[in-house]
Queue: 3 jobs
Job 1
Amino acid sequence: VNTPWVSWLTVTVNEDIQFNTVGTVKIKAISDPVSGFLLGVKGGSREFDVGFVIGFWPVISPEIPKGNFQEIGPLDTADFEIDIENLGNAVTYVAIELLDVPEDEWSISMPSSVHLASNVGASGTGTQKTVHLQIKPPYGFGLHNERKSFRVRLTPSLLGDPSQVGQSEEIVFTVQSVGMSPGVGYEIPLIVSVLVIIGFIFYFFRRRK
């Protein structure tokens, strides 16, 4: 019984080849002659092409130029910048998820996704974008000294085909809220107080004349 001989072909390509590019490898098989007692087999050769298609390489590189910690007052807003660069070989959809959803009075503003151009053959245009994570702490009346951390997950996938997904990147951001807050609706009493003070000053100077 003749047992067929199986050979495996492994093709390794550079990461700078565009997604869906078609490639071909030419194979040449050569057999040596085999002599037998009654019947011999002649040697020979055969050439054929093996085709392949470049798959999706989902890789992103997030950077935090201003760091992941901010100390602010109760009435301020922490603004974190996240630079996301596409290192992959196709247009990439990056899902942005907040994993720690606050149940108290912390307010979060952040885009849910961003599209990045392919790093291959795109001349660098649109391969990197900056998104902002904005966090407002509670600002009820009183002295505040609160610290809270938030996890953000970035997940790359092929635009239009979410089944082709890459490895997620997680970043932790921390906000420290320190200071005194006049509380909700402080604007109107503050304006009234300023007007009253101005009125007293005006009245005092008029009486001195």
Job 2
Amino acid sequence: LMTVFGVRLIARICSNAFFGFAYNYLGNSFFFCNAIVTLLSIIFALFTVDLPSPPAKERPGLRQSISVAASAIKETGLQRLIISDFIVSLCPSIEAGLKYFYIGVLSFTNTDLSIRKLVQEACFLLGIFAMGTCLKDVSRNWFLKFIYFSIAFWNLALIVVIDHHDFFPISSTVLAIGHSGIFSLLLEMKILPLMGIFMENCPKNLEGF
């Protein structure tokens, strides 16, 4: 799973690395070129990807699947984890508002936005690498608590970026990009343990439910 995510992120890093520069050079023609490249990529995938057919096995109905999944959640004691992650996920996304702030207040150029996205993707990849190496033996219970606290603290640090970015000796652009990168790293380090926990406790034949 980490290999798949890692390969996809490397591809996204490569694409984001050239987005701002390509748009500055090509202007609106960039979108036409992007559409053509996407079409060619899909055609290439259609003629090269040949996935083996999965072995035939009996799939339970929807009602039975819900019953089995609910029983598995109750037996493994994952209710509190699901509820806590649901509550955290209720926090509204401010990504769109931040983009307007970066462009309107901090005067981000297309290149700056591209670099910010590139740093975010690189931090995602760093999170995958860290979870698969130096942090793989850490207690998930305490680690998730620490990550949730870190995300909350780093959200509060956003106030510094928005209201007090002029008081720091480093440029506002570097401050904003650094904040986005570390926040992306924390999010990735939250998602991977959750995915691992649910995959380990998933009942047989309910992998795609």
Job 3
Amino acid sequence: AIAMAYLNHDRKTALKLELDDSKGFLWNDNKRIESVLRSASEEEITHLNTDPGAVATMASIKNSFWTSDKYVFNTLLDQSMSREDRATKANAIRLFGAMDGWGTDEAEVKRLLQEAATPEERARLRAQFNADAAARNSSWATDTKDRRDEDDREDGKGAADALDRALTDDFGSGEVHYVRELAKEQRDETAVNMGKIAEAADGMGTDE
């Protein structure tokens, strides 16, 4: 039914069916749900927010989500923002989640930073991350003398905001300069490429 709806160019029906199909007895396919919502046009998001059948599906999915997944879900349906701004905010939420708490999903952090391909996209991602960190009362958003002194002790000189602090806190000295370069609005692509080479070589061993 899903494939047929897509073949018939009935994307509104196809998206609802695909979202229904993403629901499980115990667990939902959250990545698939997020992918479907990110792919939806503004008109399709309006349909998901207003069609009675789609609204019921959305409510069922929302009730099964926790923490960041629910935050991303609500963001991708929020039509008070443009489609572009929704995507940026969702990426910022994922970026925060990849570094918050115990452990760091380094691959996810790098993926999200690399996908912000233009200076404008990186500026929007940074601004949204900083706003999200402030809304969560994160220590990364704290701009005090003690925090700045801590930045310096952690080789975070020049940490200007929550995103820089988060990257400094969560990455070791060998990678922090690379990921902070990735996050800059005006990247030094030579430094980025050197970082990629170093990352590719890491773990391969050295025949000294």
